[in-house]
Amino acid sequence: MTISFALTGPFAPFESDLDATRGEREALYKWFHRHPELALEEHQTSARIGEELEAAGFTVVPVGATGKVGILTNGEGPTVCFRADFDALPLSEETGLEYSADPALGAAHACGHDMHTAALLAASTMLAQHTDAWSGTLLALFQPGEETGAGARDMVEHGLAEKVPTPDVVLGQHVGPMIPGYGMGALAGPVCSTCVQTKITIHGTGAHGSMPEKGVDPVVIAAHVITRLQTIVSREIAPQEMGVVTVGAIHAGESPNTIPATAELSVSTRAFTTEVSDRLNSAIRRIVRAECAAAGATTEPTFEIVGGAPEFSNDEATAEQVMAAFREQFGDVVGDFGRLCGSEDFPTIANAFGAPYFYWFVGSSSDINSAPSNHSPFFAPDLQPTLDQATRAILVSVSPWLMR
């Protein structure tokens, strides 16, 4: 396999920048890694992003709780939006790296969002320094709260589409130990699953544990619900369609001799199409209501959507343009990448603008078979060449629209 890391041709000046700035870029990445913040609480991170963008000459537009968009207009031409997410996960890091986050924080960049952020800031700065190489408008969009599915929605609800220019295309990437040779992988069409996260509250009637006939036990109802929900995929979804129903948490009561008044279930669904997703969630509601009625509950259960992500389908024409540019620069390390059952709120940004979008993955480990996966407390990208490769990928990806 041929592995070509260095940018060539019209990108050669950017490769020189990568060499000259490697130390400071790595230091910036390590700062983000040491300062993880949870969804929509990323105030330090957001402030640092704003400072870096302003120093590079961008006009910085705050959007929502902590979102930031850097705008750089360089003559006539298309407008390209590149999105990076920057929230962390609620877990303690166990990588043992010298720049690891303090475990006491209870938060860690265990999904690579710090890498996404550092790479976009680096590419944005380089484009600002080489305005002779391109023309048009770059939107460097930094999105909070991807892990909860609330960040993109927060930016959209706070007027994203009205506050910044409308892009012709929206691009994004994700690092992880999934692509060999630190390459790039993607495909057109469905990429990630749609996701719906629901908190279900079952309302029973509390009673003393020694007098169960006086109450309606929501724990027993919940047990029946959990078992019955597992039949939706096996008996209501066609075998050739993908569907997942997961009960991730259950909470009811505090005492061993008391029948509680309520029980809460946290349920998530995943599918590759909105149509299947709607069927899954309709079946969940039907089953929960039926089990409550069968047990004699007098109060209807309640359903609260607490998170999720939209249907995700890469635009075919945009995919062809970016992948052709990748293949020309990076050769054999570029290829197709299979669909994921994981979810992403990236399309929410593009959909707000009505723009086509494309999203790919960048390999982050020399050994993809043994490297800890994203969301593991042991996950950490190989600092190099991942940081350089993620930065190169951004520069090459915008070239079909911006480069002269």
Describe the structure in your own words.
The chain has about 400 residues and is α/β, with parallel strands linked by helices. It contains twelve helices and 16 strands. The strands form four sheets. Strands 1-2-4-3-5-16-6-15 form an eight-stranded mixed β-sheet, sandwiched between helices. Strand 3, helix 3 (about 115-130) and strand 4 form a beta-alpha-beta unit. Helix 1 (about 10-35) packs across helix 11 and helix 6 packs antiparallel against helix 8 (about 275-295). The protein is elongated, with a radius of gyration of 23 Å. The two termini are about 30 Å apart. InterPro entries: Amidohydrolase (IPR017439), Bact_exopeptidase_dim_dom (IPR036264), Peptidase_M20 (IPR002933), Peptidase_M20_dimer (IPR011650).
- Low-confidence parts: none
Regarding quaternary structure, how should these chains be classified?
A: single chain
Largest sheet: 8 strands, mixed
Overall mean confidence score, pLDDT: 96
Please give the radius of gyration in angstroms: 23 Å
Side-by-side strand order of the widest sheet: 1-2-4-3-5-16-6-15
Share in β-strands: 15-25%
Count of separate DSSP helical elements: 12
Instruction: Measure the end-to-end span.
Output: 31 Å
Give the SSE string: HHEEEHEHHEEEEEHHEEEHEEHEHEHH
- Strand segment count: 16
Helicity, in percent?
A: 25-40%
Anisotropy-based shape: elongated
Q: Could you say which structural class the secondary elements and strand pairing correspond to?
A: alpha/beta
